[in-house]
Design goal:
Elements: H1 2-28, E1 33-36, E2 39-42, E3 58-59, E4 67-71, E5 74-78, E6 84-90, E7 92-93, E8 101-105, E9 108-112, E10 118-124, E11 126-127, E12 135-144, E13 150-157, E14 171-175, E15 180-185, E16 188-192, E17 198-199, E18 208-209, H2 222-232, H3 237-241, E19 246-254, E20 260-265, H4 271-282, E21 290-292, E22 295-307
Parallel strand pairs: 18-22
Antiparallel strand pairs: 1-2, 3-4, 4-5, 5-6, 7-8, 8-9, 9-10, 11-12, 12-13, 14-15, 15-16, 16-17, 19-20, 19-22, 21-22
């Protein structure tokens, strides 16, 4: 009997240690907004709701002193006092990285500075933030792929808005091993240097698999993944008010370590729904990686996240 008591005390102590450690870890995390009943409330430095600032319909954490916020389907930026620094005038935008981010008006994407001025004029049908000196942009093509995803082509631009190699590709992504870009056009794969030189004589074997011997698995299986999505999704309040619904298809890669990488939209859907779907996929826990011929490999996935009005 005493040993059972000691074992119970040990379990209680262990639970308390783990709980306190988890609380400490949470308190160390930087939280800029509190999400409550569909709205994002700005927090003070003491992590109290700033009641002098009206809540926002959508918000992202502060980056370089500014936070992306949304009201009535328009995006703008505030500083940490809640002052509106860049007015609500964009149909989509991202958080700043090194003083630049993507933004859209009238259905076209360009890039703005921290004064809200376009430094690369709106001309792309989709765009993502710069990673170093380059950024991904897309254009949509007529028709749908066999998987129900709109056909599109991708390009890489520099900070002057110039297309790398002067063209779009079926797909293009950075290849760390070769310090250049890996591009495909239809059935051909090749290298593209940072200077825009295309090497057709150095074909690349595709490193992202669609099907492998052992497919990657979400912790505790597919049902747990569906539950994660259903319980974690935050249907944007502006989308609800404006009766915006649909299925956001998100593509991503489960890498050799089981981490979620390269999260991208694979559908042409309202930016609010796309942002929430991408946020949710990026927040997924570590998977068990895919295995091909006994080795862990990168595997491409596309998941639909449905936004249905009740």
């Amino acid at each position: 009997m005493p040993s059972n008591i000691h074992f119970k005390l040990f379990r209680i102590s262990l639970i308390l240690i783990l709980t306190l450690g988890f609380i400490t870890q949470l308190s160390a995390q930087k939280v800029d907004f509190k999400y409550k009943k569909g709205y994002y409330h700005l927090l003070t430095e003491k992590r109290k709701v700033n009641k002098s600032i009206e809540p926002f319909n959508y918000a992202e954490p502060f980056s370089e002193g500014l936070a992306l916020v949304e009201k009535d389907l328009k995006f703008g930026f505030i500083d940490k006092t809640g002052k509106l620094v860049i007015p609500f005038k964009f149909t989509d935008a991202g958080s700043f990285k090194k003083g630049i981010t993507y933004a859209a008006v009238n259905g076209k994407y360009g890039y703005i500075n921290k004064q809200g001025e376009f430094i690369i004029e709106p001309q792309f049908e989709m765009a993502y933030n710069f990673e170093g000196e380059f950024a991904d942009v897309c254009k949509f093509l007529p028709g749908m792929s066999d998987t129900g995803i709109p056909n599109r082509e991708e390009a890489i631009i520099d900070k002057q808005g110039n297309l790398l190699a002067g063209r779009y590709f079926t797909s293009i992504s950075f290849n760390e091993e070769k310090d250049c870009f890996k591009a495909t056009y239809k059935d051909t794969s090749f290298f593209v240097s940072k200077e825009g030189t295309i090497s057709f004589d150095k074909l690349i074997k595709k490193k992202e698999y669609l099907i492998v011997d052992e497919m990657p698995s979400f912790p505790r299986g597919d049902y747990a993944m569906r539950k994660f999505i259903a319980s974690g999704v935050k249907y944007p309040i502006s989308a609800i008010n404006s009766k915006i619904a649909g299925s956001a298809k998100i593509s991503f890669i489960i890498d050799e370590k089981g981490l979620v990488q390269h999260v991208r939209s694979a559908s042409n859907i309202h930016p609010l729904l796309e942002k929430e779907a991408r946020r949710l996929v990026a927040a997924m826990p570590q998977w068990s990686p895919g295995i091909q011929k006994g080795k862990a490999v990168n595997v491409s996935f596309t998941v639909p996240i449905n936004f249905v009005l009740q």
